[in-house]
Amino acid sequence: MNIILRELRANMKSLIIWSVAQMFIILAGMMKYVGFSESGVDINSMLEGYPEGIMKAFGISSVDITTVDGFYTVFFLYFMLLAAIHAVMFGAVIVSKEERDHSADFLFSKPVKRFKVIVSKFIAGVFNILVFNLVTLITSVVMIAQNNGGDGLLGQVTLLMIALFFIQLFFLTLGFLLGAILKTTKLATSAATGIVLGTFFLSILSDLSDKVTFLKYFTPFKAYNSVTVMFDQQMALPSTLVLITCSGIFIVLAYQRFYARDLNT
Fold this sequence. Notes:
Blueprint: H1 2-10, H2 12-39, H3 43-47, H4 52-57, H5 68-100, H6 104-108, H7 114-146, H8 154-181, H9 185-205, H10 226-232, H11 237-260
């Protein structure tokens, strides 16, 4: 418990900054929607001139973005990206920072097994992404309600946040694995950011042409279709199972590598 509380306190400032950034993105997105809705311009007709691949890549082709729920599903892609970066960075840093901060000798000289350390850090990480997820949920519902006659679409947005949590968990455990494998925090965070951005661009690329549709199987950003989750209130069970399985594998591998690692003090 002491390790969990220590990690929560140590990362409180970072969590607040990330949460404020997410709130700002949601606010900016809803302000853009207000601008569209009050402009009097037929946005759907204007977008018909764009290439179909581009429309599909950003989820515009299958929804009416003149409605608040349709616009939110399109903009949700960017909420998901920030949540993924936050999760993977947190995982990479929390595992490797003891060596970076030269506190490994203090922590591991105590009668605490490495298993307890990694589990405590993982619990702190899950709490961290849950808070970030909750901030995203509350901000989204409030902003949607302000532009939807008081209806914040709580049920639909909550289901989207559940889907988002499994993606966050995937990247959190991936960050743990990178932090345990790579020698320095700088290497771990660089690799983590690169993987997130790489898989994000794969998700966009997979929609640009039917010839590269198979790429969607290599990116967690395509695990769920936000339109299906929002409008049909359905989450893809196979995708959920794959994300949970991968997360479990990542955390086990991270522990094995962490256990065998010679820690520099």
